[in-house]
Design brief:
The structure holds two protein chains of two kinds. Chain A is of the alpha/beta class. Chain A is globular. Helix content of chain A is 26%, strand content 31%. An eight-stranded parallel sheet of chain B has the order 8-7-6-5-4-3-2-9. Helix content of chain B is 42%, strand content 13%. Chain B is α/β, with parallel strands linked by helices. The model of chain B has no long low-confidence stretch (mean pLDDT 94). The chains are: A alpha/beta, B alpha/beta. Chains A and B meet through α1, α2 and β7 of A and β1, α1 and α12 of B.
Amino acid sequence: MGINIGVCALQGDVSEHIMAFKAALSASGQEGEVFSFRRAMDIPRCDVIVLPGGESTTISRLLRKNEMYGPLRAFKGGIFATCAGMVLIGREVDDPRVEPLGIMDITVGRNAFGRQRDSCEMAVTIIGDERPFCGYFIRAPVITSVGPEAVPLCYADRVVGAVQGPHMALSFHPELGGDLRLHLLFLKRLGADTTAP
Amino acid sequence: MKLEELRFGTELVKRGFVAMQKGGVIMDVVNAEQAMIAEEAGAVAVMSLERVPSDIRKAGGVARMADPAKVLEIIDSVSIPVMGKTRIGHFVEAQVLEALGVDMIDESEVLTPADEDYHIVKTAFTVPFVCGARNLGEACRRINEGAAMIRTKGEAGTGNVVEAVRHMRAITSGIHELQGMDDIEIAARARAIEAPFEILKDCAVRGRLPVVNFSAGGIATPCDAAMMMQLGCDGVFVGSGIFKSETPAEMALAIVEAVNHYDDASVIAEVSRGLGNAMPGLDIHKIPESEVLRFRGN
């Protein structure tokens, strides 16, 4: 029995996430299936859900329209959320146009770095890993506060990544660059159920 | 954080921005009110314009970049990305749009070309560019100049999807043909369609363009949008189709839904109900050749 990884494909960089998780599964020697889904009824068969990068206002509206808020909040597996996904997974967002899921105990600020001309590649420090990670920050959000249930994982001046149980939220896009360390860490944490990174 | 450690406008940052737009609808808007309607409907970005293409056709004369005041008004009204159109080859209009803070620049045949020989050198900019294309050769030339995204041209401002379909099919079949070829045959094809070999080779390996490809130019209904998605594009631009329809807010919402569930006819049927009249169409065969937009830029 392999692990079922479903990428929420309402909008955003879905194929990049599928390729990255396929590569991560094979690099970690795990069996599994990576697929995209666009209906709430597909959520229960997932062990992992990926909330991809995209436009958080668009995805938020489509989650509501497709009645996914309830099933996602009730989901028992791990959620891997990047960029717009991180905006959605938090407890609070600084923008009323986005309804957060409230799954992770973090507060998120949208477009914290500015417009696209301010988007950049930047070195990220991962707690417990000496090698810097090249983070692709694209109109990226930041974590403005980390509540007691979540733990910061990544820094680039500010907090740009956090974990909570099996969940991981990142400001940037590890699915774009080919460096799989964060995907592998996520998969490793899935079974372990640790509270610290 | 030292500034020298930050790398802005790299190819991956440009293409990454575009990847975030996939599965989305980008809507033409001419003021803050329309921009907010588009955002509320779930648009992934808006294109800031002085006039929508169908009005550009009516107005005639030289169509240029929008007034910076208009662009800024739109930027200030929404949180989603804002794009702006520059004339083909008009690199100073593009510099101005970048300075204003637009998130992406469309080097567009909808405006009057400023240079009939050269397109903008898009690698010189920090923000990504999207360019129109009618076929594989044209798409590859634009990618070679640094376009991070392609949109099939269609025929803007007509409400007639026929050219959008033609251009999408041309690119797809152009790539299908490559996939049966060895390198020497691809090299011969590269000469024939005036496309760089390396980019053609990349298309052959991937089985698609190496950049995101949206459809544009004549999409006027949820069915049009879903058809373009089924033909293999990554998302759609809707120009006059929304704010020239009878019920813009409803049409905007319906097209977003149709793109989202492009392969589910029951959803498309549901969202298409009671939308009123789509934008008035234009018979493409009756447009005088001088006013055909898709022939601009090659």
